[in-house]
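Weekly modeling sync, notes
Attendees: S.R. (lead), two postdocs, one rotation student

Agenda item 3: backlog of single-chain predictions. S.R. asked that every request posted to the team notebook include the full sequence so nobody has to chase files. The rotation student volunteered to paste the first one in as an example of the format we agreed on. Action items at the bottom.

Example entry:
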Amino acid sequence: MSLALIVLALSLVVVLLLARRRRVRRPAAAALAGPPGGIPAFRIVTLGLQGSGKTLLLTGIYRRLQTPGDRGFYLRVPHEQLIELNRWYRKAADVGEEWPRGTTRGELREFEFSVMADVEGAAEPVVKLGYLEYPGELLTDPDAPGSTAQATLLRAIAGADALVGIIDGFRLLQAEQGDQRGALLLEASLDAMINAMLPVRSPIAFVITKWDLLDHLHPDENERLRIVRDRLMATPGFADLVKVHSARRIVRLIPVTAVGHDFAVFSGGVVRKKPGGHFRPGNVEAALAVVVPDILRQTELALDRATRAELLAAAQRRMRMGPAEALRTLGGHLTAHAARVLASALGAGLVAQSGLMLLLDTLPPHDDPAERGARLARLGEADRLAEQYVQARRRVVAELQRQVAVLEAKLPVSRLGGDRWGDW
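Predicted structure, as returned to the notebook:
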């Protein structure tokens, strides 16, 4: 064999080996796509009558959180949902347009928010929040013959990871002005929420929409909220609901305006857009910010002392062995045992798995930044990527907890009941 043929043969062998190596490596690289262990996912169900402001609240939440700002995370929705949210926003913000219509009877709308954060220089989903919007009459009126909408809603409430009760500020205004019909509609909406929320064990929060319509009650917002809180707590059944849930968690009352304090006016018995008004939503993000911290707090409190100790030990082992290896070794007995504890205590499906996973990620690392950086430098690619997702989720939760702290410092009356957050 000539020298040229030998060189050609060796070249072909090298090319084939390199191609084979690349083929072997591709599946490993593909396996690294997405966070190891999956993305924690939670489902939020809103309860409120038609016209209470659920659609505008949803629009305001997305518009406020669609860019990172100084939070370090932002929300993303599928493109078809983005088109719908933008359409609602344009209709709401245009003083020449009517208000966006709410959900009609039999119409269930579910939106998927992906919480995006930086992972190795790229925006990646680290938590997912499903947001279910429904026609409120399904809670107060008999279902249509042959319809399954009411049963679907009740199943969603029973399986929700968090419930948000929508209290219509317009009805509060009517009740405050002595409008008997408005007072009866307010009472009917509260009755519906009380009956739906009382038996559940998931975290709950209350949102007062159209907060701008109540500006006249008091110049100080916290005192204004105190006036509304006193009225709500005097409503039969509402104080009992708060008392029952406060035994297990914090219950909050969050005032929001989806349009701002200089856009809508109450005139002639209806709410109209103000010509030349300024569309500036306020506090809408707080309605979402409290959800994940409350779910984590609920998850923590549902664990017995032994399981908490096991989780802490597992978190420390994970810091030593590397996140990817820990996900493999901790995914058996620990996760199964803790998930059973949560399922028994909370009676929910997703929170038992997602809540445990996110709680494990956000436990205090108990190491200094220099040591953590040195450990990251020693990790392999899979462990390093897993650790980046852990750190991203930890930053998101810390920011959400900071927003909750800001809310409570600004509006201490927003706490209806429940113990303060404790340290592990």
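Discussion: group reviewed the output briefly. Residues 284 and 361 are 27 Å apart (CA to CA).
Action items: rotation student to repeat for the remaining queue; S.R. to check formatting next week.
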